[in-house]
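Private note to self, pasted from the team thread so I don't lose it. Backbone tokens:
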């Protein structure tokens, strides 16, 4: 009889006791060394989307309401690295960062000792699966009310073949019954402890995962399988690094949005925002919206203030003007940009130089000049890209190249400036109704374009968020066309119209 069953006078072996765990513990297994990636550091310390892989993973459990405590089992020689990541990220649920064992099974034994003897739920998860969803965590914990062991798996999209020692096929199992295992694997603590206790007496003990230990040594224990996800990949080989980075870019996390007019006013009152490119389009709409909500906004542009973003002296003068007026700069926004169409071989040097200077040299110049001000307020630099950054397009060669460069600049500066508390993000709106677009493409059907006001609203949401190093997609909601953004009245569910939706990519 395992500890899962009632042992009191009224119990029978067929009547399991109600499961009453003291807490739910996530054990993050970070013992890998990264040898298959050819790295000099453990793969869980490799940065993806601006953060170490292990930080992304821990953040999932930190945000999961079902998780009470997190214990990290780290590779030998790198425990202090993990502790610093935990401290810097403010991960309050992490109670222990300790050294793991030489094997996966040895690490599990160390983890069980660290968890302690009290009955609890335990989730074992690979640190290098950073794209775990909150949904999977929730379903694992919920399943433990009914089952003593839970695995996560997805259907196999490929035909699986079984081979002999000569690599000749001996069997082709029915694919509909096959699954590809993932993590976390979840257990009632008495079950996994009992399985490992029995395994100690087996000289031939070997298992690649913890559900395999339960399956072998507690064969009467049902192991429930819940659906994993294709995104929950394990970073093992070099190609996985690129895949994970792209999946983070494409992740549809909702950009934060406050609940009502009063909340925005409370956040923005007293803040100073400098907008380069604030005379029309997105920059103008952002200026007007932020002012209505209490911010002090200073828009600069070539047409209204004679400010050229590629000129260091112009940028310096603009920032100085805003700082002398308010004593602070909280946010610097760069919407300035030009769109010139044409085949590269046919474009004159003056046009090429102007496009490169305004679209790339300008943001770089502004970033350099803004840093001293933003350090004082722990503020944010906000840049703007275009959907063409993901793939260059004919007749937009330089424009596409500069927009791709801004994404890389965003990610690099977010990493570079993290230690001084300055955040950097990039807005990626779809085709937007602005004067610049009209000049380039003429009149277009209204329902096919995103409203500049919607982009301004999403930009404001990002500015008052804690995001950094992110590319934020802004897209029209299905069926929407351009419409005006009007500040919501107190008590309403959101500020602005539903003309666009934002997600972190």
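Design output:
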């Amino acid at each position: 009889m395992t500890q899962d069953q009632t042992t009191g006078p009224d119990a029978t072996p067929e009547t399991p006791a109600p499961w009453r765990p003291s807490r739910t513990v996530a054990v993050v297994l970070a013992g890998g060394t990264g040898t298959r990636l050819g790295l000099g550091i453990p793969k869980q310390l490799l940065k993806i989307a601006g953060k170490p892989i292990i930080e992304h993973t821990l953040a999932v459990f930190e945000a999961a309401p079902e998780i009470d405590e997190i214990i990290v089992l780290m590779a030998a020689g790198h425990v202090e690295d993990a502790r610093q990541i935990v401290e810097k990220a403010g991960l309050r649920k992490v109670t222990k960062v300790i050294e793991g064992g030489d094997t996966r099974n040895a690490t599990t034994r160390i983890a069980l000792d660290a968890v302690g003897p009290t009955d609890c739920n335990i989730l074992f998860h690979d640190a290098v699966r950073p794209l775990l969803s909150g949904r999977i965590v929730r379903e694992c914990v919920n399943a433990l009310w009914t089952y003593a062991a839970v695995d996560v798996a997805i259907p196999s999209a490929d035909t699986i073949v079984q081979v002999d020692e000569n690599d000749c096929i001996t069997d082709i199992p029915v694919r509909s019954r096959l699954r590809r295992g993932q993590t976390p694997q979840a257990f009632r603590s008495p079950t996994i402890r009992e399985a490992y206790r029995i395994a100690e007496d087996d000289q031939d003990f070997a298992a690649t995962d913890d559900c395999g230990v339960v399956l072998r040594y507690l064969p009467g224990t049902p192991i429930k399988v819940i659906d994993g996800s294709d995104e929950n990949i394990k970073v093992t080989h070099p190609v996985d690094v690129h895949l994970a980075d792209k999946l983070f870019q494409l992740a549809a996390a909702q950009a934060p949005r406050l609940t009502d007019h009063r909340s925005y006013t409370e956040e923005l009152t007293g803040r100073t925002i400098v907008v380069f490119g604030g005379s029309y389009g997105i920059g103008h709409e952002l200026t007007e919206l932020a002012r209505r909500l209490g911010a002090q906004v200073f828009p600069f542009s070539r047409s209204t203030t004679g400010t050229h973003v590629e000129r260091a002296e112009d940028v310096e003068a603009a920032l100085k003007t805003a700082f002398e007026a308010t004593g602070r700069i909280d946010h610097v926004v760069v919407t300035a940009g030009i769109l010139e169409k044409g085949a590269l071989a046919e474009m004159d040097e003056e046009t090429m130089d102007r496009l490169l200077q305004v679209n790339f040299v300008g943001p770089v110049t502004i970033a350099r000049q803004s840093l001293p001000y933003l350090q004082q307020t722990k503020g944010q630099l906000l840049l703007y890209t275009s959907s063409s950054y993901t793939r260059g397009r004919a007749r937009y060669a330089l424009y596409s190249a500069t927009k791709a460069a801004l994404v890389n600049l965003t990610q690099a500066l977010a990493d570079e400036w993290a230690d001084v508390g300055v955040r950097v993000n990039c807005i990626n709106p779809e085709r937007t109704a602005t004067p610049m677009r009209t000049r380039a493409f003429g009149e277009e059907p209204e329902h096919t374009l995103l409203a500049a006001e919607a982009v301004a609203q999403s930009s404001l949401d990002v500015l008052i968020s804690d995001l950094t190093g992110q590319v934020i997609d802004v897209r029209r909601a299905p069926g929407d066309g351009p419409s005006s953004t009007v500040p919501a009245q107190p008590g309403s569910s959101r500020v602005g119209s539903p003309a666009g939706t934002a997600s972190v990519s």
